[in-house]
TrEMBL record:
It comes from Jutongia huaianensis. The keyword Coiled coil does not apply. Homohexamer. The keyword Oxidoreductase applies. The gene is gdhA. Belongs to the Glu/Leu/Phe/Val dehydrogenases family. It comes from the Bacteria. This is Glutamate dehydrogenase. GO terms for molecular function: glutamate dehydrogenase (NADP+) activity. Residues 205-448 form the Glutamate/phenylalanine/leucine/valine/L-tryptophan dehydrogenase C-terminal domain. Keywords: Oxidoreductase. Pfam families: ELFV_dehydrog (PF00208), ELFV_dehydrog_N (PF02812).
Length: 450
């Protein structure tokens, strides 16, 4: 697919020049622009208000030094990032990624996607994202703590419960959030809901741990239902074996599907008898081990491990849920999925499909649940954590889960309706981008040229 609208073509050229060397961000903007072409035609008032030019430029970007001392007494230096992309509809909100691949282009694409995702949740949250090229893998708890304290010593100057509320993402789980929260509280001498994904003993919300994976399945079930299908008795392949993948496996299994594969950045497991989730949880959540250990630890005799990640998409399945990282499904992998009869791809990870892979989904009439809608359950539940912190109350697991389920149903409905309204029925990617954009755009127009 290529852009046809000259105004958007020219604007994309400007974005490319201004953000040279950041291909992930250009990829994210290109996708959004392709979906917004009919909006440009229908809403000249938004063009007049400069909304398109303003929405692709972050309100603020912070880059900082993160020095810390390792277990050998050696000084290490990482780079920290926080991008405060858009605050039109609420305080900046989005996770912190700790992974060696992190640089400004990754944080910028994630922050940009977050604007539309957060808008789709219906909650008042703007878009932001952050992180560092620090790799928590293989580090001791002491090293992770010293890094997190140093990171927060700078970050705390720029965030706050009514300004910017970070959370977890790849490499940032409950341990890291705990260390960062402790440091924020110590420096600012205040207890506030400045981070979400907190532990349950200090203001965290029940069901936040499960929320992204559960939400992905709630959204996917709605998409399947609208097309006369369901998870029941379907074979599912899920990539990754982190927070999102684990709870997507749990909910898909509860919905009656059989999940047969999971992966990490070294390789993938295939278990034709269905993934033995408690074993995966022990290895990944408790021991921080590698997925290949599964084969020796499960009683399922037919389980196998294969080195390398992309082979996971050659496994025959009905539904694929990529839950690891960006651009993990390319055109070749998408073609293998289609050739093996996979009819639905729904994204737990952020931007896991390349543009060429998305073309393959549409050419093969596969159902496609785009990340900014399908994985919005995590941030939605973070929004619910913020509400509980403000109220000084804690809701039960069932209450939070029911609200999450309701939000995911509404997100599917908005995507479906926007796609229909703008003449692209069944294209939930277009629907998600249009519905997410319109709310933010109206707010930006109403607030004047800021
Ligand atoms: N956590 C949340 O609430 C939300 C997360 N997301 C997105 O979901 C995805 C997964 O996040 P989450 O589960 O939280 O992260 P985790 O750190 O818990 O798990 C990440 C998983 O993905 C694998 N992975 C990471 N990088 C790569 C890579 N380059 N190639 C192959 N596999 C890789 C990891 O393997 P290994 O252990 O080997 O690194 C691990 O299995 C990300 O795209 C994130 O942005 C989206 C919405 C909310
Ligand atoms: O819960 C949050 O605030 C962050 C979630 C997130 O980073 C994401 O949706 O990608």
């Amino acid at each position: 697919m290529a852009l046809k609208n000259q105004y958007l073509i020219d604007l994309l050229e400007t974005v490319k020049k201004r953000n040279a060397g950041e291909p992930e961000f250009i990829q994210a903007v290109t996708e959004v622009f392709m979906c917004l072409e009919p909006v440009v035609e229908k809403r000249p008032d938004l063009v007049e208000a400069g909304v398109f030019e303003r929405i692709v430029e972050p309100e603020r970007q912070i880059i900082f030094r993160v020095p810390w001392v390792d277990d050998n007494g050696k000084v290490q230096v990482n780079r920290g990032f926080r991008i405060q992309f858009n605050s039109a509809i609420g305080p900046y909100k989005g996770g912190l990624r700790l992974h060696p691949s992190v640089y400004s282009g990754i944080i910028k694409f994630l922050g940009f996607e977050q604007i539309f995702k957060n808008s789709l949740t219906t909650l008042p949250m703007g878009g932001g994202k952050g992180g560092s090229d620090f790799d928590p893998k293989g580090k001791s708890d002491g090293e992770v703590m010293r890094f997190c304290q140093s990171f927060m010593t700078e970050l705390c100057k720029h965030i706050g419960p009514d300004c910017d509320v970070p959370a977890g993402d790849i490499g940032t789980g409950a341990r890291e959030i705990g260390y960062m929260f402790g440091q924020y509280k110590r420096i600012r001498n205040e207890w506030s809901g400045v981070l979400t994904g907190k532990g349950l003993t200090y203001g965290g919300s029940l069901a936040r741990t499960e929320a992204t994976g559960f939400g992905l399945c709630y959204f996917t079930e709605e998409m399947l239902k609208a097309n006369g299908k369901s998870f029941k008795d379907q074979t599912v392949v899920i990539s990754g074996s982190g927070n999102v993948a684990i709870y997507a496996t749990k909910k898909a299994t509860e919905f009656g599907a059989k999940v047969v594969a999971l992966s990490d950045s070294n390789g993938y497991i295939y278990d034709p008898d269905g993934i033995d989730l408690p074993v995966v949880q022990q290895i990944k959540e408790v021991e921080r081990g590698r997925i290949k250990e599964y084969v020796d630890r499960t009683s399922h005799k037919n389980a196998t491990y294969t080195e390398g990640c992309s082979g996971i998409w050659s496994i025959k399945c009905d539904i694929a849920l990529p839950c690891a990282t960006q651009n993990e499904i390319d055109a070749d992998s998408a073609k293998k999925l289609a050739a093996n009869g996979c009819y639905a791809v729904s994204e737990g990870a952020n931007m896991p499909s390349t543009p060429e892979a998305i073309d393959v989904y549409f050419e093969n009439k596969m159902l496609y649940g785009p990340a900014k809608a399908a994985n919005a359950g995590g941030v939605a539940t973070s929004g619910l954590e913020m509400s509980q912190n403000s109220e000084r109350l804690s809701w039960t697991f069932e209450e939070v889960d029911a609200k999450l389920h309701g939000i995911m149903k509404e997100i599917f409905k908005s995507c479906d309706e926007a796609a229909k309204e703008f003449g692209m029925e069944g294209n939930y990617m277009a629907g998600a981008n249009i519905a997410g954009f319109l709310k933010v755009a109206e707010a930006m127009k109403a607030q004047g040229c800021v």
